[in-house]
Amino acid sequence: MSHPNAALTPRHRLKVARLVVDEGWPISEVAARFQVSWPTVKRWADRYQTGQPMRDRSSRPHHSPKKTDMKTSRRCIALRLRLREGPVQLSVRLGIAPSTVHRILSSVRLNRLAHVDRATGEPIRRYEHDHPGSMIHVDVKKLGNIPDGGGWRYVGRQQGSNNRSSTPDKPRSKYANPLMGKAYVHTVIDDYSRVAYAEIHDDETAITATAVLSRAVDWFGQRGVIVERVLSDNGGAYRSHLWRDTCTERGITHKRTRPYRPQTNGKVERFHRTMADGWAYARCYASEAERRGELTGWLHYYNHHRPHTGLMQRRVTA
């Protein structure tokens, strides 16, 4: 394949060479006909005459005597992982140019500190189970209830405060703190397909969480997906005997993340961000009831129609 700025395609290069070599056309006439320079015509004619292919040669040099040696590259990577310093700082330590440091780090995907695990200093290793149901992620997303008239994000803090003070108290669960005014979105997402299931409740107790898990497992089962494992954080609901017994009853292996390591459950954490942008704070809702009523429609769009970059456009729809 020719480079983007090539004046002649490989097919026309062959035609140019044949006109000169086989039919004896003058190089200047061929160059004028194809609107290229005469050195270009001569180059392809010479290559055709010697039996060389009509494609571009690599511009990569055969020898690079000033190329950064492997020892320096390895030391650069080790310092990046241990010290988390940038190209300028590392270049002083190594005695090479900052651009060289950046090139080395880019080649091993360490050019951004986000690619390095802050806790361990090791490159982040992403994982994905090989079939739906092999692992599901569960978590709870807390959202402030929207007062009648709209929340402060769209109507401003002063008007939002006035709307909140004038909104009558909503009936809540006996377990919920009436001063918090929060909605608890219990989410379940499949590791392989990213298909999501969610319910909104007024608490995050073990009774509610286990009930959501049971309904989610049945929901996945109706779609031919058998849940084998569930991954959660170390919240009280997920450490309860009720949660343990429910998982045992359904034949599900329960795994918990390491304390203070939400990255392990990153797929559901990232889904919460997508949900916040696409549903929770996507537009001005006049009330909490209006926002809750939109969740089902948004989940249908997410599961059936929304392209997912993490899956390279692969979707296993619900």
**Percent strand:** 5-15%
Question: Unreliable runs, pLDDT <50, ≥5 residues?
Answer: 172-180
* Mean pLDDT figure: 84
- CATH architecture designation of the largest domain: 2-Layer Sandwich
Total number of domains: 3
The major pleated sheet works out as: 5 strands, mixed
Beta strand count: 5
Structural class: alpha/beta
Helix fraction by DSSP (H/I, runs of at least 4): 40-55%
What does this structure look like?
By secondary structure, this protein is α/β, with parallel strands linked by helices. It folds into 3 domains: 10-49; 70-115; 136-311, 2-Layer Sandwich (Nucleotidyltransferase, domain 5), CATH 3.30.420. 42% of the residues lie in helices and 10% in strands. The chain is built from 12 helices and 5 strands. The chain has helices at 10-21, 27-34, 38-49, 70-83, 87-94, 98-107, 152-155, 157-166, 206-221, 241-249, 266-280, 288-304, and strands at 136-144, 182-190, 196-201, 229-232, 253-256. The chain has a 5-stranded mixed β-sheet, with helices on both faces. A hairpin with a 5-residue loop joins strand 2 (182-190) and strand 3 (196-201). The longest helix is centred in the C-terminal third of the chain and has 17 residues, at 288-304. It is elongated. It starts with 9 loop residues before the first helix and ends in a 14-residue tail after the last helix. The relative contact order is 0.09. Residues 172-180 have low confidence and may be disordered.
